[in-house]
Write a structure and sequence with these properties.
Radius of gyration of chain B: 24 Å
Shape of chain B: globular
Helix content of chain A: 10-25%
Strand order of the largest sheet of chain B: 15-16-17-14-13-19-20
Largest sheet of chain A: 4 strands, mixed
Order of helices and strands of chain A: EHEEEEHEE
Mean pLDDT of chain B: 97
Strand order of the largest sheet of chain A: 3-2-5-4
Strand content of chain A: 25-35%
Strand content of chain B: 15-25%
Oligomer: heterodimer
Helix content of chain B: 25-40%
Low-confidence stretches of chain A: 116-123
Largest sheet of chain B: 7 strands, mixed
Number of helices of chain A: 2
Radius of gyration of chain A: 13 Å
Structural class of chain B: alpha/beta
Number of helices of chain B: 15
Number of strands of chain A: 7
Amino acid sequence: MAESASPARITATPAAREAIIRLSARRGGPVMFVQSGGCCAGSTPMCYPLGEFLVGDIDVLLGDIEGAPFYIDRRLDEAWHQDQFLLDVAVGEPGGFSLPAGDNLHFVTLSPACATPGTPEGG
Amino acid sequence: MKYVPPGQAGSIVSVEPRYENFIGGKWLAPTHGKYRVDLAPATAGPITEVAESTPEDVELALDAAHAAKDAWGEASATERAQVLNAIADAIEQNAEMLAVTESWENGKPVRETLNADIPLVVDHFRYFAAAARGDENTSTEIDKDLVAYHFREPLGVVGQIIPFNFPLLMAAWKLAPALAAGNCAVIKPASPTPWSILKLMETIEDVLPPGLINVITGPGAEIGKALAANPRIAKVSFTGETVTGRLIMQYAAQNLIPSTTELGGKSPNIFFADVMAHDDDFLDKAVEGLVLFAFNKGEVCTAPSRALIHEDIYDEFMARCLERIGKIRQGNPLDTDTMVGPQVSRQQIEKIESYVDIGRNEGAEVLIGGHRAKVDGDEFADGYFFEPTALKGDNKMRVFQEEIFGPVLAVTTFKDDEDALAIANDTLYGLGAGVWTRDGNRAYKMGRKIKAGRVWTNCYHQYPAGAAFGGYKISGIGRENHRMMLDHYSQTKNLLVSYSTKPLGFF
């Protein structure tokens, strides 16, 4: 199974935390995140019902946000060499099969160093 | 010339206020009666409404496909080819209308849809019509009395999920081989581009037997799994990003069905020193070959997003490229002079912006661009335009490793062939690559050593039917765009027939 990062390498904005709490309540169950890479909706985190995505030895657990574990493929993690990830929400529908972060909202991951510009609605 | 936007007076594209799913040859309202607005990225304004389908609609589409599959599966190659050719003819007769439709919905410049996307769609159906007709089963004489016959049989009903970057060409890449091999399809377009394929269905519905192609629109979270994990599909094929690709394969594993995945890239485009040996057409072509990173505003899985330039020619070659990039005309996608249109969505342009920031923070040098673009016309003030951008840096930087899916080029230099190859292969992906040199031996050797499914040699971004396309490494599994796709969409039936009357003698 995936190793847990200690201390957690994922943090979240208040907007992202609220979105996870609302989403879990509405669905009646917890959710999980998997960081994606490549192509159209790549480089965004995918949000699924907890357990929907089969996590393997290749995946690294970056931490938990409001009970939602956040994973990344070890190969992506090594290529990106990004120590800290910040989970946020942004306007627009999610890509792939990801659950939305709310009405016309999707989750995004930011590099905390670059988190301020360009996403004024990002909590 | 400038085409009038769809829906406005004088446009060659008619727009209904609302589009239903296309199921069993009919336009069916979504079960729950919900719709969502489809936006034009050039203006951020609405085009129309499309169905926001639910799993019930997926089942209806599968019902229709299953109802059609036996008759279509038994249709002769001649009959299948006739349908595929009729589809191609109908598209060709409406090529300009479909080109404007796709341009307006996706944001890609109409010069590309007129000259690349739609003609390639037409040709793709014709290619697979020919492949179906030319296909032969085999028989092998195992010994004088034992013969192995091999027949191709359709899988049945297949599920297909396509991306937003080539809404019609990706549909053609998936639909044409599936139909040619005798299957029926349920296809889900990407959420940002659901309308183009519905206009395509309007165009071909009169020549398409009901149930062969069924189109359902809606959010991936609602209907993506309902289709991909459905036990009533015999194969799933997907183009998109890696995590959804893994999920698709996970569902396929659970149902024990085959899958095809095409999952993005970070393709190197390598320019050897001899491209500058003469100031001629070839050099001009190589410069254009670098600038092709901005083709389709960089929203291409095989975008040549990493330029590797020999250090001896870097200054002069890059100066020519930057001059060419500086001349890119950006704006209204329906203007035939426009070279780069808007990104497909707000989500995409925000992601691109954040990557350019990441590049800057990592120490990459912005050679050109780097910001949202202001384009002519008040109506485009809210459009998702981003300047063609070149960042100089090191291959270990994130902007060299992550697929940005925008008009952002990462540029670096190399010392020799070995160095070029090491940098080219220092990536998780392996979808495409480009090699530019006047030395045929070098081109061949590099092309064979690069770990990518497609190595363009002295060209780039050509996608002719008949040239297999697909990924190495994490860029996916399987191929498209070639008659080998008939195998991907078929079962193999072997009849092993004995013509001997003698018993084996074991019992």
